[in-house]
Specification:
This protein has 317 residues and is mainly α. Helices cover 76% and strands 3% of the residues. It has one domain. It has eleven helices and two strands; from the N terminus they run ααααααββααααα. The C terminus is likely disordered.
């Protein structure tokens, strides 16, 4: 029975990705905010419907665990959004070509995370102490994120895989539409769009090292972990086009994410001593994230109001 659901879900993803690339985004274009918002609503709605299906199929506890995993992964993906904006800026990728990179980045992320999730679930099943290792890592990551003052790496285009690609491949300096490779007189050559894709994939692997153990704090069921992860990743592209220019408006979100990581890490460390019901975990995580978003928006509004007042006084003076 589980095999049927695995095959069905993979086919579902394949159909939607094919429609996305072959129909809705066949031609390169700048994704406007309204289109990004519409797709964000579509992916969140599909995730909610799927989660309700899991709840009806597997019961309340597993269903709540699914929604908790989805919320964790989706909220952590917001950090990816701001890093992707940095990557695209570093490579000077035209806005109309960014969706192409994110599409193939999502495909690669789904494959890599599928492998990582199966490996992680197998490790936890064989060696129980891995739970404590994951928990300690998440607490460390959360504390480091909370104490971090700076942003992300200033030069994401200088990661080791990009440097290897520049040395091993012919790379032309200019973009050629949506092509990752072109044929030149000297042979096959990569475009800057391919180097951008390598950077996006590398970035996702780094984020997956944080997010996948976080979901294992909720459940070790590979199907629940992967599907909740997959829906969050599938909605990442539309979320990027919706939020990429709004990083400064969510100044406290990183602190909220840090608290979430510390919470789920502590939950893993105390798993054999204290059992926290899934519904409590879901309420805590949503509450922390909501508080960080509201605090960010209030601070942004206050800053804009003060700025407007200061400007008005300056003009009067």
């Amino acid at each position: 029975m589980d095999l049927i659901f695995w095959v069905g879900f993979i086919l579902f993803i394949g159909v939607f990705l094919a429609l996305d690339l072959g129909v809705f985004h066949r031609k390169a274009h700048i994704v406007p905010p309204k289109e990004a918002l519409a797709w964000t609503v579509v992916w969140v709605t599909l995730a909610v419907i799927f989660g309700i299906g899991v709840l009806a199929w597997r019961g309340a506890e597993t269903g709540i665990a699914w929604f908790t995993g989805y919320v964790i992964e989706y909220s952590l993906s917001v950090d990816n959004v701001f890093v992707f904006a940095l990557v695209f800026g570093a490579f000077a990728v035209p806005r109309e070509l960014q969706h192409r990179v994110l599409f193939w980045g999502v495909v690669g992320a789904l494959v890599l995370r599928f492998v990582m999730i199966l490996a992680g679930a197998e490790l936890i099943e064989r060696y129980h102490w891995v739970i404590y290792a994951f928990g300690a890592f998440l607490v460390f990551t959360g504390v480091r994120m909370a104490l971090s003052r700076g942003g992300h790496a200033e030069h994401p285009e200088d990661n080791i895989l990009v440097r290897v690609a520049r040395k091993r491949l012919r790379v032309v300096p200019e973009f050629h539409g949506q092509k990752f490779f072109i044929r030149t007189a000297a042979g096959l050559a990569a475009t800057p769009l391919f180097l951008t894709l390598i950077t996006v994939e590398t970035t996702d692997v780094i984020f997956a090292v944080d997010s996948i153990p976080a979901i294992f704090a909720v459940t070790t069921d590979p199907f629940v972990v992967f599907t909740s992860n997959a829906f969050a990743i599938l909605g990442l592209r539309s979320l990027y086009f919706l939020l990429a220019d709004a990083a400064d408006r969510f100044r406290y979100l990183k602190m909220g994410l840090a608290v979430v990581l510390i919470f789920v890490g502590a939950k893993m460390l105390l798993s054999d001593i204290l059992k926290i019901p899934p519904v409590i975990s879901l309420v805590v995580i949503i509450g922390v994230l909501a508080a960080s978003v509201v605090a960010s928006l209030m601070a942004d509004r206050r800053e804009r109001a003060n700025g407007g007042f200061a400007t008005e006084e300056l003009e009067q003076g």
